[in-house]
Design brief:
single chain, mainly alpha, 3 helices, rod-shaped, hydrolase, Zn-dependent M32 family carboxypeptidase, carboxypeptidase activity, DUF5327
């Protein structure tokens, strides 16, 4: 479920406003717990986005291995002396 951050921030503002109007410590703590949960939701979402935008080391290694030079011989033409620079 993808909830916009602005919606979460609006809920946090509402909870803060309600907490400010409470006189009971228990009610303030309940609103604070909701605010904490909303903060955690934003922070977890940020971590997931960062993880999704970065590649793991295994993915990088696989990409390098697949794109690295293969063992195929390069065709150098008929006028060359041989497959090696040292073959002359």
């Amino acid at each position: 479920m993808n909830i916009p951050i602005t919606t979460i921030l609006e809920k946090m503002a509402k909870e803060i406003h309600e907490a400010q109007s409470c006189y009971s410590v228990q009610q303030i703590r309940e609103h604070a717990a909701v605010i904490r949960a909303l903060c955690d939701l934003i922070l977890e979402r940020s971590n997931e986005e960062q993880t999704a935008n970065t590649m793991s080391n295994d993915e990088i290694v696989k990409l390098i291995q697949s794109s690295s030079a293969s063992n195929e011989r390069i065709e150098i033409g008929d006028d060359a002396n041989g497959p090696s620079l040292f073959d002359f």
